Amino acid sequence: MPRFDLPLSELEQYRPEVAEPDDFDAFWGRTLAESRAAGGEVIVVRAATMLRTADVWDVTFPGFAGDPVKAWYLRPAGRAEPLPVVVEFLGYGGGRGLPVDRLAWSAAGYGHLVMDTRGQGSGWGSGGDTADPHGAGPATPGYLTRGIDDPIDHYYRRVFTDAVRAVDAARLLPGADPDRIAVTGGSQGGGIALAAAGLCTGLVGVMPDVPFLCHFERAVGLTDRDPYHEVVRYLAVHRGAEATVFRTLSYLDGVNFARRADAPALFSTALLDQTCPPSTVFAAYNAYTGPREIDVFPHNDHEGGQAYQLTRQVAWLAERLS
After folding, report:
1. Among 114, 119, 132, 180, which is 20 to 30 Å from 91 by CA?
2. 249-282 per-position pLDDT tens digit
3. End-to-end CA, the chain
């Protein structure tokens, strides 16, 4: 596969003009205030599993508009002392699956909250358990154009709110140290982690791995892969809707969340990644206002570093917490 994006020397300096709505902060402040005001309790039920190295709880917490959102909470078996918690967000189309799918962070000594992604969970993995009860207007198959005519209605407004409420819930979990909460995720999960970083306070670490949902105008014009190509297909039918579409997406752009984040961050990108092109990742990385590092995989596509990156994240977070 040939290189298709900017050379690394240019990526490291890439700081594009990314549209930011004047009411961005007010929009998100109002959204989060309304969802917190909707109430709802965090329900934590011990789960019976085959696992011997991890204790597991089935968690339900109030997300956007108080909607119930499912999650798994894992801790190293038998540990009673307060532990830092890693909140993980998932890739496009996947759900929280089964506890056995997500053992690395508890095996490394952390609490681990795995958030289900509303309305997803039927594309890969072991399934999801959270509905998205809110409708939207015309859209292409997938999630990126759901509610594309207005940021109030957009699918990711709900998902990003769920993510912030997951961090709120993590601070209330049994055995969680509320002052040591980190967020992570790959692809879609990386984009959600960036949104959480920009909307939450007091995080100890942010680990966006090959993140999606960044620098939309660049991505839509550069790659023919989904999910970004969903926008192309939508605009090919809804001719003349570009201004409306990109205005909505500006409320959801990881670059704009990165401008508001202050927790230490470890990004990753792959230089052959045609799903989340490296220039879109570097746009967010170079805008990030907290301490930041990025791992670059020169010969990988969207798989990025996989287990190598997870190993790096575990070591990096331990260093931050020490």
Report:
1. 180
2. 999 999 999 999 999 999 999 999 999 999 999 9
3. 41
What rounded mean pLDDT belongs to the chain? Answer: 97
Task: In whole angstroms, give the CA distance from residue 19 to residue 30.
Answer: 20
pLDDT single digits (tens) 7-39: 999 999 999 999 999 999 999 999 999 999 999
Strands 205-209 and 265-270 come out as parallel
Active-site annotation holds for 302: yes
Task: Examine the residue annotation and report whether 273 is marked as an active-site residue of this protein.
Answer: yes
Task: Select which of 187, 250, 268, 279 is catalytic.
Answer: 187
Catalytic residue among 106, 132, 273, 279: 273
Query: Residues 6 or more apart from 89 whose CB is under 8 A from it?
Result: 115, 117, 163, 166, 183, 184, 185, 188, 189, 190, 192, 193, 196
1 lies in some domain = no
Tell me whether the omega of the peptide bond preceding residue 7 falls within 30 degrees of 0, making it cis: no
Partnered with residue 145 across adjacent β-strands are: none
Question: Domain residues for 139?
Answer: 8-321
Per DSSP, the three-state class of 205 is strand
Helix intervals (H) in the chain: 8-11, 24-37, 104-107, 155-170, 188-199, 216-222, 228-237, 242-250, 254-258, 278-287, 307-321
CATH number at residue 294: 3.40.50.1820
Is there a domain that residue 218 lies in?
Answer: yes
Packed helices 228-237 and 242-250: angle between N→C axes, nearest 10 degrees? 150
Number of domains in the chain: 1
130 part of a folded domain: yes
Q: In the 8-state DSSP scheme, what is residue 282?
A: H
pTM of the model: 0.98
Over residues 226-252, the pLDDT tens digits come to: 999 999 999 999 999 999 999 999 999
